[in-house]
Amino acid sequence: MPVKIRLARHGRKRNAYYYIVVADGRAPRDGKYIERIGDYNPNTNPATINLNFEKALSWLEKGAQPTDTARAILSYEGVMYKKHLLGGIKKGAFDEATAESKFTAWKQEKLAKIQANRDSLNKSFEDEKKKRLDEEAKINELRAQNIAQKNSELIAKLEAEQKAEEEGNKIAADTTEEITKTPAKEEVKVKAEVEPTATKETPKAEGTSEAKGTSEAKETKEKKAE
Fold first, then answer.
1. CA 18 to CA 80: how far, in whole Å?
2. Looking at domain 3-131, does it have CATH number 3.40.1260.10?
3. What is the percent of the chain with per-residue pLDDT over 70, rounded to a whole number?
């Protein structure tokens, strides 16, 4: 079987990268290879390709057959187009200078497309970033408004509670003052009512005891007379 230019998988699961290798077609995919001519990382945007252009072209001229993915990478890097131009020189369709100018023009056009693609990706990334920042700013503003509203409601509630407490303390103080003053007035009134009664009842009590004493003396005299 012919020699193949293909990819050899490396890296961990869901984060694989690949070596671009020249290997025997009978060798396993990730097995032994003849030569490594580059690497390919699809995890970046755009994908990262590092390729030894001269070695890849040399192996193509020797008859190495690229796989579909490897062919796409080689075409992207211009190796396949360069091989086509070299074939045109061999056939006498044009000279080497013309082939070189054509390749240079293609390469500049390709680089311009790559740069435009990168600029588009960067712009999309910046637009998305700006959009996320704007949305985050709106969320933060709304959150700040909610916090301010809650704080104002809490302050109003605390002020109302403080005002109610002050009014309650004032009412309690007025009530205590009234309770303190009232017994003094009643005590004076009761005292004034009790003193005249005691004065009137005292002679009556004295008169009763005198009458009792006279009665006992009379009974004693009667007993003696008998």
1. 20
2. no
3. 77
